[in-house]
Amino acid sequence: YGFYTGFDSDNSSGDFSEANHKVTEMHDLDPHQSNRTGKHNGETEIQENGIKRHRTSLPAPMFSRSDFSVWSILKKCIGLELSKITMPIVFNEPLSFLQRITEYMEHIYLINKACSHADPLERMQAVAAFAVSAVASQWERTGKPFNPLLGETYELTREDLGFRFISEQVSHHPPISAFYSEGLNKDFIFHGSIYPKLKFWGKSIEAEPRGTITLELLKHNEAYTWTNPTCCVHNVIIGKLWLEQYGTVEIVNHSTGDKCVLNFKPCGLFGKELHRVEGYIQDKNRKKLCVIYGKWTECLWCTDPTTYETYKKNEKRGGEQKKLKPSEDVIKSENDEADDMPEVQDTVQFVPGSKLLWRINCRPPNSSQMYNFTSFAVSLNELEKGMEAILAPTDCRLRPDIRNMENGNMDVASKEKERLEEKQRAARKERAKDEVEWQTRWFHQGTNPYTGTSDWLYSGGYFDRNFSDCPDIY
């Protein structure tokens, strides 16, 4: 989440205000669908099966950044903390970082798949695919989400996908976002906190992830924990912005002792390793059970270690290299979600006999005009009719700066952003004067029961909808 998050906006020097990374859910008003569903008046459409349709585009196209230079701002700030940098709103995307975190759930079918497997190895494979898929939405997303205000929240309930999600900005210095999600069928709990450590290297900005991510599969009485890879945005001075993920991600099954070690490879001098992920799953006795390989921007595969090593040795000897474009029958036989898989031209070296674990979703045709959002991201900031009456007053969807940016009102959005930051600073000074400590509303600091490390845990009660004591932050 490097370029997008963790910059502060609460210092009187003018922090890097990253307003919330909100994407509103919008109605698909395709006339063909409307004729079928009978909804034409801007309300969320209901398909024949009773599932709501979400919007497929933003209200206004992305504002051009071509006339703006990141370097013109950053060159004044070399040697300063990134939290002290004020960036024009044009470098943002119309989402809060809390909404950005929610994009973990785009590939929730992988959690459902993990829940359904009787074999612990297959469960770990699905969890590994989910961990990789969680960073896939960042591909080509070079805009910053808005930095959440202290006390800001975001909720999302998707009955069609079988989950609900709540997050809160629990700290502003340092910026920490806590989240909690649960399956509507009581089959899983997914929670964690994110506190990225940002570094500016002159030509790039790097975000080292802090905070533990935990997935509990309730039916299997299993818990998995991991930390995200490091994210780096390149060419912040000149050239086309691009990002990479690198570092080692260890996923631990605390019930069986199995471990998945994934190496997100740095680009390398000639770009041969760009986006590559390679790793393995081992049991508690450190025996390798399978090898996992692919690209976090494309797909993930697994095969047995012997097959993989044999293939790699043959490859080094100059054996035939086969580009990964498996036939339809391979995908269908190896993956239940074959019908949902987009036709993507992969560039991963395919090891014959491998099983497909995950493939990235196709983005909407107009994605480049919408901050390179996925279809899931496009829906996140949708403010449906009647929603304001039930949302917490701190919900991202109600943030005026993000809402105005989404609607293309850039000048108003910029003024609102400044107003909200000033309001936040004034509230902080008032608390300091009265010696009052900030109280989080939905999360509390505690200990992760599986890692023993400090964590932010969900206190419960959000969906009772008693919002009487929520702070006035907008």
TrEMBL record:
The record's Pfam families line, in alphabetical order, gives: Oxysterol_BP
- GO-annotated molecular function: cholesterol binding
Q: Name one GO biological process term.
A: lipid transport
Q: Does this UniProt record's set of keywords contain Cell membrane? A: no
Q: Which UniProt keywords apply?
A: Coiled coil, Lipid transport, Lipid-binding, Transport
Q: Which GO terms describe its cellular component?
A: cytosol; perinuclear endoplasmic reticulum; plasma membrane
Q: Which Gene3D superfamilies match?
A: 2.40.160.120, 3.30.70.3490
Q: What start-end ranges are recorded for coiled-coil regions in this protein?
A: 403-437
Q: Which PANTHER family match?
A: OXYSTEROL-BINDING PROTEIN-RELATED, OXYSTEROL-BINDING PROTEIN-RELATED PROTEIN 2
The family classification in the record reads: Belongs to the OSBP family.
Q: What is this protein called?
A: Oxysterol-binding protein
Q: Which organism is it from?
A: Anseranas semipalmata (Magpie goose)
Query: Lineage of this protein's species?
Result: Eukaryota, Metazoa, Chordata, Craniata, Vertebrata
Question: Gene encoding this chain?
Answer: Osbpl2
